[in-house]
Specification:
By secondary structure, the chain is an alpha/beta fold. Helices cover 44% and strands 12% of the residues. The chain contains 11 helices and 8 strands.
């Protein structure tokens, strides 16, 4: 069989790196995307993969990444939007958006929508790494996506992970008929460094003795790999949210189709505004 082209963001560490190693060992053409040039190059070199560096805290870098991918790969079979993390005190990016929301949602939203022509032509699968935090902490205010009125580290992360699910359902609604299949998933509590820069109490689980009781990155990557290797419509349902290879219950807001549509429209406007700020002709 011809190797598939599989793009994985957040692949320089944690479950992204674990998934990249496994898929490369299966003979797939893996494309590693990370924020750290050194770590990204190390993983790519280890598995013989192509690599790209992009910091999702700057949407111009996401646009550049999308352009690079479109130029190099006329076909993308799987896009795994895996980059993300828990942040600290409220901080705005250079694009003017709350950092947690931008890195976890706006950046993958922009990357995916910039690649839609390739993804539809490829009949691709888009996999979005969410979290059970969507059920525990999220209460999404569509009028305050940048959390200017009310902010907490945990709520910002939960809202961003809920946004991942809402994006998944709306991507399915808009583009499944054109061939794109999509799913969101919770990887479990994985012993990685993704909370290293956070001030959230959740950070303690990742930096204390509790880490030894958490899943390994390989275990956390299991559902991502199951989705990437499975057949939509046979092994899993497009537009749904999964954990441990099974349908999972999300925050009740995740099932609001109107909210999903509005989040898409507002996200599109937010990334367009960010682009306008960088273009004096706009």
């Amino acid at each position: 069989m011809t190797a598939r082209t599989i793009v994985i963001t957040g692949a320089s560490d944690g479950i992204g790196a674990a998934a990249a190693r496994t898929l490369a060992a299966q003979g797939e053409h893996v494309v590693v995307v990370g924020r750290s040039a050194g770590k990204t190059a190390r993983i790519a070199g280890e598995i013989g993969a192509d690599s790209y560096v992009a910091d999702f805290a700057e949407l111009a870098q996401v646009r550049r990444l999308a352009a690079q991918l479109k130029e190099k790969y006329p076909r993308i079979d799987v896009l795994a939007n895996n980059a993300g993390g828990i942040m600290g005190a409220r901080e705005l990016t250079v694009d003017g958006h709350e950092k947690t929301f931008q890195i976890n949602h706006l950046a993958p939203f922009l990357l995916t929508t910039e690649l839609l022509d390739v993804l539809t032509a490829s009949q691709a699968t888009v996999i979005n790494t969410s979290s059970v935090a969507n059920s525990i902490f999220a209460k999404l205010d569509i009028e305050d996506l940048d959390a200017s009125r009310s902010y907490s580290t945990n709520r910002a992360y939960g809202n961003a992970k809920l946004a991942n699910i809402l994006f998944t359902t709306e991507l399915h609604a808009r583009y499944h008929a054109e061939g794109v299949s999509t799913a969101a998933f919770h990887p479990g509590g994985v012993a990685t460094n993704f909370a290293a820069d956070s001030t959230s109490p959740m950070r303690l689980a990742y930096t204390s003795f509790l880490k030894r009781f958490m899943l390994t990155p390989d275990q956390g990557a299991d559902t991502l790999l199951w989705l990437a290797n499975g057949t939509p419509g046979r092994d899993w349902a497009s537009g749904a949210y999964y954990a441990k290879r099974a349908l999972a219950k999300a925050n009740k807001q995740a099932y609001d189709a109107g909210l999903a549509r509005e989040l898409w429209e507002r996200s599109a406007a937010m990334v367009a505004e960010a682009s306008d700020k960088l273009d004096p002709r706009a």
